[in-house]
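Friendly challenge for the regulars: who can give me the structure tokens for this chain first? No prize, just bragging rights.
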Amino acid sequence: MAYQWDSSLETGYEKVDNQHKQLIAALNNIILASREGKGKDEVFKTLDFLTGYTIMHFSDEEKLQVKYDYPDYLIHKRYHDEFKATVGELTARIVKEGPSEEMVGIVTTAIGDWLLNHIKGDDFRMAAYVKAKAAEQGQE
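First reply, four minutes later:
Bragging rights claimed.
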């Protein structure tokens, strides 16, 4: 698979980590469907899942940030909003150009690279803050 989950991606929040695992699995499923020639319907079905799951995941993360008054919430949300727009543009492009292996590679690389960088940077910072605030409030 192109993307592997490992402990270096763990934020320490089980729900967030499980959602990240699902996003990575969906990316790999799109790649696999394309490589195995499963057809555009399977690629589009998996891309739809990835898009919807990303929106749900971002919403869950943002609720957690609001709950603990995360000081970089607006910046983090802006990153999410910009990424959702990018995913929309990439989805439109793959629909227009077709789900060739090359196009699937472009889309999954853009999404996957952004996701891994976001997890290891923005999400780690957010998780550390939220864990500390939860501990302060006795909500570990």
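DSSP finds four helices and no strands in the chain. The two ends are 34 Å apart (CA to CA). Your move, everyone else.
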